[in-house]
Specification:
Blueprint: H1 6-21, H2 26-46, H3 52-65, H4 70-87, H5 105-120, H6 125-144, H7 155-163, H8 170-183, H9 210-218, H10 225-239, H11 244-248, E1 255-256, E2 261-265, E3 272-276, H12 279-291, H13 314-327, H14 339-352, H15 357-364, H16 380-385, H17 395-401
Antiparallel strand pairs: 1-2, 2-3
Helix pairs in contact: 1-2, 1-4, 3-4, 5-6, 6-7, 6-8, 9-13, 10-12, 10-14, 14-15
Amino acid sequence: MQPVHPVFTKLNKQLCCLLEKHAYKPSTIRTYERNLQLIEDYLLQRETDYCPDIGNDFSLEYVSLNAAVQSRCTSMKRTIRRLNDCYYGKGIVLMPQREREFLPNDFEMALSQYSIRCAENGNAPSTIKKKMYALQCFFQNLVSMGCESVSGLNRTFVSRACLMASDQNHWLTIKGLLSFLSEHGETDRDYSCIVPSRRRSFHLPSTYSREEILKTRQAIDTSSPKGKRDLCMFLMASWLGMRSIDIARITFESLDFQKDSIHFVQQKTQEPISLPMPEELRTAILDYMNSGRPESGEPFLFLRSLAPYSPLDPSAVSISVGKYLKKAGINTAGRKHGAHSLRSSLATSLINNGMTYEETRRVLGHTQANAVRHYAVLDVERLRQCACAVPEPAGFFKDFLEGKVVL
């Protein structure tokens, strides 16, 4: 039997062989395979074969749906670039590995001690690696100015090295290191106070009205197995506010049809949560299980609608939501249109309907008490109750308004 997409099938095999040939890590290869599977789904939906233009179109669509997760966007762009290189016969063009420049012993010792402190504070290895990179850049800037020891730090060196940083996000890490050095008496004073502060820009959460969500729900055609699955995922995101990764990782053990509830451990916080299973969601799940889900021994509820019937990637949940918003004719300009936008919509709706922030936090499964504070800016009616009355003019200001005095 001929493959549905002969060009893509050939490129897929070629790329995977090249990754193994160049000894890429198994985890990296699995990431490429997941991305390639999403590209194949895209080709099937459009009934076309692969070419660089199609790949670039998919990349743009994927990035727009996953703009909040920069790592996913970077990973997909890299996969498309590698696939296009194979298409043009370039193979894998390896970037030369840049050797790390070793610093003076005093700085290397400071990095080692601070990495231990970060580990003791519970920082993940990946976080420590990012911090060490930021501090290496900071120390290299100091060395370039003639400062080669911690004891040689002064206001001028610190301020100039901070301004030389290529990424202002490094400032917070530098501030932490300088506080650590001062705490241990390694510097003559605490230089963390002169490190600039970078305020992150504030963005209102993307939300959709109840009418828009209902219209989108009606756009889901449940006559097909894929539609039955997508309805379940949409209801979980819009009614329960579940994250896309939790939806994709829901197992049969999580479903309690006796008590009409869903129990699972949140992937982001590793905290358990129990949510109700509304009647429509219960009916949709049973319908999918009985007449939509492919036969498989996988413990996960949701599977790909096409062979191989493997578990869904979390990004597929958001892509599905965006597809149905577009199908329903909802204007998404200036708003995110993935699964998280439905979570934001639920939170805003709960707060606007009088639910307290603490109750909303528990529904969404946040672990921090102030995690839902940014939804307060959308609680217009409650904000009106906090408005102060404008005081009556008095004294000189009153005389000025009445024209009795002039400036």
